[in-house]
Amino acid sequence: MKLGGFLDLMEAKLRQNDDKGERGWEDEGQQQLLDKLCDEVEELMGALARVKQDPSAIISECVDVALFAYFIADNTHRAALELPDAPEEEE
Length: 91
Known about the structure:
The chain has helices at 3-16, 30-49, 55-82. The chain is mainly alpha-helical. Helix 1 (3-16) packs across helix 3.
């Protein structure tokens, strides 16, 4: 699978959840998002552990994991932009 195809799947999954707010993750704390990421990793592990693996289910769980990692990165990036400039250290 090419990265562009994976990104398309991520975008499609985001669109499925538009009713929750365009960027609903912005209102969630980092720990809450991390907990959800861990839940998604567990779901991925379950999909991989099945005797009869379903490739579409595995890929869907991978998309979920990637989205929650993105949500954490996005919130971190936005928070860093809101911080006042740190004073320079004196030598």
